[in-house]
Known about the structure:
2 domains, six-stranded mixed sheet, two-stranded parallel ribbon, oxidoreductase activity, acting on single donors with incorporation of molecular oxygen, incorporation of two atoms of oxygen
Amino acid sequence: MDAQSQRVARWLEETDEEEENDLEDLPSSEDEEDCCLEERHDSESEQESDVGEQIIPDTPSALQPLSESSSDEDVPLANLRIYKSKSVQVVFIVFMSLLSMNIIRHFTGYRKMMVLAPALFVNHGGGPMPLLGDKEHAGLTVFLRDEVKKHVNIKELKAILLITAHWEENKVTISSGKHHNLYFDYYGFPPESYQYKYDAPGDPELAERIKKSLEKAGIESKLDSKRGWDHGVFVPMMLINPEADIPIIQISVLSNQDPEQHYKLGEALYEFRKEGIAVFGSGMSYHNMREFMYSRHLNKVVNKEFDDFLNEVCTSESEEKRRKGLISWREQRGASEAHPPRAAEHFMPLIVVAGAGGPAPGKRIFNWDMSGTFRLSAFIWKDE
């Protein structure tokens, strides 16, 4: 029972007590008789002097004087009945007002709860380069720092489930600690890139709920309270939400790189979006390390066809087309050049996020050519 309902209950109890007190205070039968005789005498005198002005009501009323046939004992009891009738009416009006307010508040809260948190895929770049101010990552840095917030109201999120390309396991693994240190899983960069801090909290209870939800969906999973957050988590999040005040659950991809299993994982995570919990994927829509090293600055985009394919399936009005397209992505032209065989871990977070997208089409919110050669795209799913 809420506080308002409790106050109404207490008020009703007090009213009953007052009514009992009124009954105790009623005059005795002898007092009633004397009182009524005096009142009747006064009334008869008034009637004799004001006969011409007497008005007889056309309709009965609860406040109409009692007829002469009424017994003397009925007078105080009738007054008490009028008092109780009014009290009941007041209580009823107050109760219905409070009930209406609670109903309005309930459905208003429900409507807010049903606003989906987004499913978002972003490119995190090479190691810590977006944080170091690398010129070739400038466009990506600006997007993560300034543009994501135009599409996602970070402060409304209850938590973020972040699927990272830099954590591969044979079964889906979920970070479950209250706090996770950073895992600097890159090498050969300046000393300052190993001093970063990102102290966003974890959420063990949410991690356990995710595990149970995946089990219901037939997906094997396990919890890990020890592994640190890799750069697939902290590099984009330091730019997207430097305040580090939103709980994060880091989730691995599968080492088998099976697209159907990753899409199914996303479908299972979709339900959490209804609770205001976002699903982020951190990877690269193009990731070919050999080409990154030897084909920079060719003054032409090497993955245009594959990027066009991604845009077509991710923004499709047909959820089934999106699903079939991403599950069969290896068959598309340019797929093996964009993500070489057995090295598609950076593509898996996009498939998970697309699976968590629900029935709505995605929207491309970032399309940029790194080094003028490698076209990168980011996608978001927001509304039903």
